[in-house]
Automatic annotation (TrEMBL):
Chain residue ranges for the region called Disordered: 308-387
Domain DUF4218: 1-77
Protein source organism: Linum tenue
InterPro entries reported in the protein's UniProt record: DUF4216, DUF4218
Protein name as annotated: DUF4218 domain-containing protein
Acidic residues compositional bias, start-end: 313-326, 345-361, 378-387
Length: 387
């Protein structure tokens, strides 16, 4: 059967969205059921038994920890155990993993200071020390103050936490490892330079930050992936990004009436925080705005290792909408017939219908006449028989 593209628009008007009425999911499920058949004499029984066995295995495998089974395979971008697994300090415990190595380099003094201060401000275990620093004298910056007082402040910690906090207070080494790609939080990231040779886009960055007391989405591009090294074998992966100016409404960022966010690529955000933790970011994609050459539209990505959770009201409403969409005999919108058919064609159809009705009347009349003649002939034969 050949499907012509010219029929798709009319079919969509009459029947609604195609995803509610195509047969691909049903055919895939039937293929799965056919794979259960081992005895051709009893296909229905094989399907039923195979389906029950697979459901039982999946259910039991959820309670078997540490046992490999084919149903708990890692996702393509799933998190794995990294070098920092088992660490007590949160910034040292990251489950991402790198893709390909890049050339190593040494950090400049400004870059090292920016990365170190950002890590301290975003480490949960350091927050009590920050509050204590704010109540004390501020003759020196927090990084230097924390380095000088870390040994006295960490006396009530356990041995591992104390060693990791002391390593964090001394700051990272100047030499860093660099990567072209990194997988974390269910996303696969590539640097902007690395993806120039690729067809897909994986360098878009989304970071939720505070602007005053308001939570703002910061959009940018990933330019470099570095791994900071601390004493004791501790490591922290950070993303260096170029940020768009989202603090200037209408000139740097805007939202249209449909809810799409657009950012101005000609306006960069001037900030002293180019580095962010790899565990904090999400992935976005950018599409060029056809009407404005300097603007790009933001499309948020969905992590392959996470699922959206809905409330009961939203689930009920969604199921009701799906049930309405599955009524194929009823169009979602009532379209007048003159929008789908030209006027001359409609006249021709009416003439054909009238001619068809006349022919039906003539045929029914002739059939009635024939039936009457046959019945009269039968009555004459009966009379002859009686005589």
């Amino acid at each position: 059967m050949v499907h012509l593209a010219m029929h798709l628009a009319t079919e969509a008007k009459l029947a609604g969205p195609v995803q509610f009425r195509w047969m691909y999911p049903i055919e895939r499920f039937l293929r799965k059921l056919k794979c259960y058949v081992r005895n051709k004499n009893h296909p229905e029984g094989c399907m039923a038994e195979g389906y029950i066995v697979e459901e039982s295995i999946i259910f039991c495998s959820r309670y078997l920890h540490g046992v490999h089974n084919p149903f708990d395979k890692l996702e393509r971008n799933g998190d794995r155990d990294s070098i920092g697994s088992g660490k007590k300090v949160s910034v040292f415990n990251q489950n991402g993993y790198p893709l390909t190595m890049d050339k190593n380099r040494s950090l400049e003094d400004l870059e090292r200071t920016q990365a170190h201060i950002y890590i301290l401000n975003n480490c949960e275990e350091v927050q009590p020390f920050i509050r204590e620093y704010e109540t004390s004298s501020k003759n020196e910056d927090f990084a230097e103050w924390f380095k000088n007082h870390a040994s006295q402040l960490c006396t009530n910690k356990d041995v591992q936490s104390r060693a990791e906090l002391l390593s964090l207070a001394r700051g990272p080494l100047y030499g860093v490892d660099r990567f072209n790609g990194y997988v974390i939080n269910g996303f696969r990231f590539h640097t902007q330079k690395h993806e120039t040779r690729k067809a897909k886009q994986n360098s878009g960055i989304l970071l939720k930050g505070l602007m005053g007391s308001k939570v703002v989405d910061y959009y940018g591009v990933l330019t470099e992936i570095i791994e900071l090294q601390y004493l004791g074998g501790n490591r922290v992966v950070m993303f260096k990004c170029e940020w768009w100016d989202v603090e200037n409404i209408d000139r740097g960022v805007k939202v249209d009436k449909y809810g799409f966010v657009s950012v101005n690529t000609s306006r960069k955000l001037v900030t002293n925080e180019p580095f962010v933790l790899a565990s904090q970011v999400e992935q976005v994609f950018y599409a060029q705005d056809g009407s404005n050459p300097n603007w790009i539209v933001v499309l948020k990505g969905q992590s392959q290792s996470s699922f959206d959770h809905f409330s009961e009201d939203s689930v009920d409403e969604q199921s009701y909408e799906q049930e309405e969409a599955f009524q194929q005999e009823k169009s979602a919108t009532n379209y007048p017939i003159h929008n789908l058919v030209q006027g001359n064609e409609l006249d021709d159809w009416e003439e054909n219908d009238e001619a068809h009705d006349d022919s039906d009347d003539n045929s029914s009349h002739s059939e009635n006449s024939a039936d009457e003649g046959q019945s009269s002939g039968e009555s004459e034969d009966n009379d002859d028989f009686l005589l």
